[in-house]
Specification:
Largest sheet: 8 strands, mixed
Oligomer: single chain
Structural class: alpha+beta
Length: about 675
């Protein structure tokens, strides 16, 4: 996040825009020479309008693409801005950067630049393209790179930084208001409300472009007009793919290994952080097929805290059993640079989109490594309980009788808007795919745009949701019950992919015994899926451009802006406390005191607690977004709120903590795991 700001700026607003951005641009020349932070501001003329396109990103001057004439041959004035990495959903083509897209177009292939609605490619990128009088904008299909937007007279600006868009409006003298009902709903202190629950945000004038949606605008004499979002229904995006279940799981496994092999072939180190679970192990199975000698693979485990001792032990056992090397070998230089202030980076990139202070301390340098994770399995696993949304809504209401019903209603309204029946047995997981899936995991784009999770595949998401009677449904022997489609924990799609790609790896123990695959289960999976994937089945992948064409991380321009807003502080409780209090004060000052008082209380408790700031809940992230909203008003009446129930006694809280301190580590881990399962079940 905070990878880009791309804006159609009408001429009457250009002086104010330049006054706002110019003091923060790093020194550069038109060629982009001068170091990795040079050339962060690209300005392009647009056809048929006096407005111009301003694009700010790392290496922005290299992001312009000459698209050429349209399909009919009678359209001139076409162009695009492309930043990042794209992978076709069929896993047959990889495009690195604008140079790669330009080479693809020059070769006569326009499938990426002309991808139709709902057929956006995977990867981690932003694409803004115009042809004649129409402009379209979107990011990768699953929105690992978020897209928020704001509009005004002749203005259209898109960015993955919510704060940048809010501050831009203020700099241009445009109104900024807070949506009263949504703000009240987002005071709910549950994970499902740790991010937008629909397309709206805490600023009424800044909205999100969701999964399978695309932004369109008409270019007129004064700039951008008739800005609208076109949303494809989820039934279209994730419909039954036809064919057989075995055909699609096999294609998913082959595609994953083939793409990773192509990355190794172009010289990328493939960096995977392993846990003891099944998701990252499925990615490891693909890695072992893509790079059997571990010549371009770097493996590590970051789960080394007291609650994750089992993870580290399992990873060590894997390494010993399979002869894997943990850590970088000679020649595997994972080049990166540290952000001066991790908190400043979070405020620039994640503020207003995800509440948890998940800090990133560095970014990968171009051409360094491809970051792999297993979290993409969330598109086909159970996160909110795999149930009708009414169950999630009931849990939200029990937790907070005031904010819960508001957040639940807005969430259900969003599901209806994308064609999902809230009463459907899988409605809870559609809401997860729509919002939390990308915003929770996509923060890795602050580190490296070469980081699309290999398990995050539309074909696998579709398989998990088809009618149980379909030929593409999970085979009956792998189900809990004959009528359901959701897989059992030890026969999930991650386990299937692992068996297909690496049966030996599938036989080794996991961090929890219920994830282990015994020999009969492994054999059953392989018999139903057609046996292990053979070497001959791995397919070549066309590549356009080079990994070094992809610039990752927050633009120095945005970091400079954040510093000017007083956000370049240290990552500790004492340093952020004044900002947290200020955010709570702004919320109270605009009429939300009753709604956010419990959040302020929780934040103060966290500020007074020793420990790692990034492991605390999201109360800080609910208050800090009010900082750029200072002086804003509400766009409607504040919902009525019933009196709050008495809070748990301090003595009781101390007692629970004391009991926890007396537990042995193994018991604390079991309690923590049980609590996480309950939170997931309750729509936490």
């Amino acid at each position: 996040m905070a990878n880009y700001l791309t804006a159609v700026i009408p001429r009457h607003l250009e002086p104010a825009f330049r006054d706002w951005i110019a003091p923060h641009l790093p020194a550069a020349n038109a060629s982009g020479a001068g170091g990795p932070e040079a050339g962060e501001h690209l300005v392009l003329e647009l056809p048929g309008t006096t407005a111009r396109l301003h694009h700010v990103a790392r290496g922005a001057v290299r992001d312009a693409v000459a698209v050429g004439r349209g399909h009919e041959g009678d359209m001139t004035g076409s162009g695009a801005v492309f930043h990042g990495y794209a992978q076709s959903s069929e896993d047959a083509t990889t495009v690195f950067g604008a140079a790669g897209l330009g080479a693809m177009i020059a070769a006569g292939d326009r499938t990426l630049v002309d991808a139709p609605d709902g057929q956006e490619w995977d990867g981690s990128y932003v694409k803004v393209a115009w042809r004649g009088s129409e402009l379209q904008a979107h990011t990768d299909f699953f929105r690992l790179v978020p897209m928020a937007y704001t509009a005004g007279p002749g203005l259209l600006a898109v960015s993955d930084s919510w704060q940048v868009l809010v501050r831009l409006r203020t700099a241009l003298g445009l109104p900024v208001t807070v949506p009263a009902e949504l703000a009240a709903a987002l005071s709910l202190q549950r994970i499902i409300a740790a991010h937008p629950v629909d397309g709206r945000t805490l600023c009424s004038q800044v909205r999100m472009v969701g999964v399978g949606a695309r932004l369109r605008a008409r270019l007129g004499p004064e700039g951008a007009h008739d800005v609208r979002v076109h949303q494809e229904p989820f039934g279209t995006l994730f419909g039954d793919p036809g064919g057989s279940w075995a055909e699609h799981v096999r294609a998913g496994a082959i595609g994953m290994a083939s793409v990773l092999r192509s990355h190794a072939d172009v010289g990328l180190s493939l960096r995977l952080s392993l846990s003891g679970g099944a998701d990252s192990r499925a990615v490891l199975a693909a890695l072992r097929r893509a790079d059997p000698g571990q010549d371009m693979t770097v493996l590590s485990t970051t789960n080394r805290g007291p609650a994750n001792v089992r993870d580290a032990a399992v990873v060590r056992h894997l390494a010993e059993a399979l002869g894997l090397v943990l850590g970088a070998r000679d020649g595997h230089e994972l080049r990166s640079v540290r952000y001066p202030s991790p908190f400043q980076a979070w405020m620039t990139g994640t503020l207003g989109l995800h509440d948890r202070l998940g800090m990133v301390r560095s970014r990968a340098l171009p051409g360094s490594h491809y970051t792999l994770t297993g979290h993409g399995a969330g598109v086909f696993k159970s996160t909110y309980g795999w149930r009708p949304f009414a169950g999630v809504a009931a849990d939200m209401t029990r937790f907070d009788p005031n904010a819960g019903p508001l957040a639940a209603r807005l969430s259900q309204d969003y599901l209806v808007s994308v064609g999902v029946d809230p009463a459907a047995p899988d409605a809870s997981e559609w809401h997860y795919i729509a919002w939390r899936n990308s915003l929770h995991g996509g923060r890795s784009t602050l580190v490296n745009l070469l980081s699309a999770p290999p398990l995050m595949q539309r074909r696998l998401a579709s398989l998990a949701h088809v009618d149980p009677r379909s030929a593409t449904a999970l085979p009956a022997p792998l189900r809990r019950t004959p009528e359901e489609n959701g897989p059992r924990p030890n026969t999930s799609l991650t386990s299937v992919m692992m068996c297909l790609l690496d049966p030996e790896l599938a036989s080794l123990p996991h961090d929890e015994a219920d994830k282990d695959l015994d020999a009969p289960t492994r054999q059953l999976i392989l018999s139903l899926a057609g046996g292990p994937v053979t070497e001959e089945e791995l397919t070549p992948v066309r590549t356009f451009g080079r990994p070094s064409d992809v610039e990752s991380g927050i633009a120095a321009t945005f970091l400079s802006l954040a510093a000017s807003w007083g956000q370049g502080v240290g990552l500790d409780h004492r340093a952020i406390a004044p900002l947290v209090e200020q955010g709570g004060g702004i919320a109270a000052g605009i009429g939300l005191a009753d709604w956010y008082a419990p959040v302020v209380d929780r934040a103060r408790e966290n500020l007074a607690t020793a420990g790692t700031i990034t492991q605390q809940d999201g109360s800080f992230g609910k208050l800090l977004p009010f900082l750029p909203l200072a002086g804003a008003g509400l766009d409607g009446p504040v919902p009525d709120r019933a009196p709050a129930a008495p809070a748990p006694t301090t003595a009781g809280t101390r007692l629970r903590r004391a009991v926890g301190d007396l537990m042995p580590p193994s018991a604390r881990r079991r309690v923590s795991a049980a609590r996480r399962r309950i939170l997931r079940r309750d729509g936490a």
